[in-house]
Amino acid sequence: MCSENGGGGVPATCWVVIPARNEAATVASTVRAALAIPGVVGALVVDDASRDDTGAVAAAAGAGVVRLPRRRGKGGALEAGVSRLPPCGAVMFLDADLGATARAAGALLEAVQSGADVAVGVLARPARRGGVGAVRSLARWGVSRLGGRPLLGALSGQRCMTRAATELLRPFAAGWGAEVGMGIAALRRGLVVRELRVAMAHRATGRSLTGAWHRGGQFLGVARALARIALRDARARGAVAAPRTTAPEAAPAAAGGAKGCTKPRSRIFWRR
């Protein structure tokens, strides 16, 4: 934990990082709810090259704003936000479309203040799943396979962690793979990970073309992150298991062969 912890190692201050792209309709209420959480001292919205007024709306609601000139995806937005935070005891990640329900994230900070390194919010399944089930199943399977145990909130973007844990989990996986990458890294490092059911809800995407495109991008992002981790593991195992090789000794020239020449002449026959 960083230097601004309270007595007994309890995080005294928490900053909230909110990655956002084209979320002008909901980001203000999300920021206000986050700032109302006891212990939260500031919110930083990372505007991931939005085409609407996300940044301006967030600033008007009281958040600091980082505007990215080019889209970097969720993982890149989180990296940009964390790299600009002042000293603090804990860092919270919230999605920009939570609205007023973001206030329930206070339970995650309380879990960190009670000794958890990482607290993950598990949201209730929406009535209309809109294709999220496949992405969630892939994320859970991947974290269980590569991290050693399953996490119900493997795909959840609602997390709070000590500042020290945040630094241990960086750099974050690119794009939509950020959460599964964090989960796997936290479990592998032996951090204390607690999952809590929280009364938060996303804006429903439904089964529209936009929703399908979003879920498809999520699925590919999660799959790509899992594949990269598995590939790194395979390379690491190969580097450890590969035997040391030595150059073979040259075979002695055949008896009666020409000196200094061990390669037989080749003959080419042409057929007519």
Helix content, binned percent:
25-40%
Largest sheet: 7 strands, mixed
Mean pLDDT: 86
Count of folded domains: 1
Spatial ordering of strands, largest sheet: 3-2-1-4-6-5-7
Order of helices and strands: EHEHEHEHEHEHHEH
Per DSSP E runs of 2 or more residues, the count of β-strands stands at 7
Low-confidence stretches: 1-8, 254-272
Radius of gyration: 26 Å
Q: What's the shape?
A: globular
Our count of helices gives 8
Explain what you see.
Helix content is 37%, strand content 15%. The chain is α/β, with parallel strands linked by helices and 272 residues long. It has one domain: Alpha-Beta Complex (Spore Coat Polysaccharide Biosynthesis Protein SpsA, Chain A), CATH 3.90.550.10. It has a 7-stranded mixed β-sheet with strand order 3-2-1-4-6-5-7, sandwiched between helices. The N and C termini lie far apart (83 Å). Mean pLDDT is 86; it is low at 1-8 and 254-272.
Give descriptors for this structure:
single chain; about 270 residues; alpha/beta; Spore Coat Polysaccharide Biosynthesis Protein SpsA, Chain A; 8 helices; about 15% strand; globular; disordered N terminus; disordered C terminus
Question: What does this entry show, briefly?
Answer:
Strands 3-2-1-4-6-5-7 form a 7-stranded mixed beta sheet, with helices on both faces.
